[in-house]
Amino acid sequence: MYEERPPHPALAGRVACLWSRVATEEATQPVVPDGCVDLMWGPSGPQVAGPDTGPHPVRLTRGDVYHGLRFLPGAVGEVLGVPVAELCDLRVSLAELPDLGVRGPGDLVRATAVRLRATPPPDRAARPIARALADGGRIGDVARELGLSERQLHRRTRSAFGYGPKTLQRVVRFQRALRMARDGRALAEVAAASGYADQAHLSNEVRRLAGMPLGQLLSRP
């Protein structure tokens, strides 16, 4: 059973949601790229799930309990005490990072709120960059639209999201397509509206990012 809740007001604007999961059976749950970073407490203790560029299967055992919070894309900033690019495609124990003061699942919100107050805000260009890339613009055009050089765009995207603009564009385009498909829209329409060349392009990208066909992905929670 998986549940999401709105973030505490102290986390507004930086955290997308608080979440919990209780495994009711043995299963392998695929985690797909969404541009986010998660701070969580599970059977192995406190961990950070860095930004993914491909599927990350999680083996669940009946009775496993997880609690977490999910940062908005590009919003983690300096909260974790290390560059987000160093966490890309990794699951890292909090014991390997600067002490956040998390001693139990109930500390996730409090410790994060304290760190948010003590660290600079994230790059204000992060959201405009993600929106512009989601609209399917070429990297050079997006950079000019935002008043940046391509090198500046790459540096700021990597700093905010953990990877460069080309990867970010693939992730946000994939997430947009996934939302449309879950709303029941025809896949050919989804492909066109999400910036893919055609439905075959959409199918290939879903396999690369999710590790499974779109239909199989849609059938999962």
Any descriptors?
single chain, 221 residues, two-stranded antiparallel ribbon, 8 helices, 38% helix, globular
Structure description:
This protein has 221 residues and is of the alpha+beta class. The chain has eight helices and eight strands, in the order E-E-E-E-E-E-E-E-H-H-H-H-H-H-H-H. The chain has helices at residues 107-118, 126-134, 139-145, 150-161, 165-182, 187-194, 199-210, 214-218; strands at residues 2-5, 15-22, 27-31, 37-42, 45-49, 56-60, 65-71, 91-93. The strands form two sheets. It has a six-stranded antiparallel sheet with strand order 1-2-7-4-5-8, with no helix packed on it. The chain is globular.
How do the strands and helices of this protein lay out in sequence?
Layout: E1 2-5, E2 15-22, E3 27-31, E4 37-42, E5 45-49, E6 56-60, E7 65-71, E8 91-93, H1 107-118, H2 126-134, H3 139-145, H4 150-161, H5 165-182, H6 187-194, H7 199-210, H8 214-218
Antiparallel strand pairs: 1-2, 2-7, 3-6, 4-5, 4-7, 5-8
Helix pairs in contact: 2-5, 5-6, 5-7
Largest sheet report: 6 strands, antiparallel
What is the overall number of helices? 8
Helix content: 25-40%
Structural class: alpha+beta
The coarse overall form would be globular
Number of strands: 8
- Tell me the fraction of residues in β-strands, as a range: 15-25%
What is the typical, i.e. mean, pLDDT?
94
The radius of gyration computed from the alpha-carbon positions, rounded to a whole number of angstroms, is: 18 Å
Q: Spans with pLDDT under 50 lasting ≥5 residues?
A: none
Helix and strand string, N-terminal first?
Answer: EEEEEEEEHHHHHHHH
Strand order of the largest sheet: 1-2-7-4-5-8
Termini separation:
9 Å
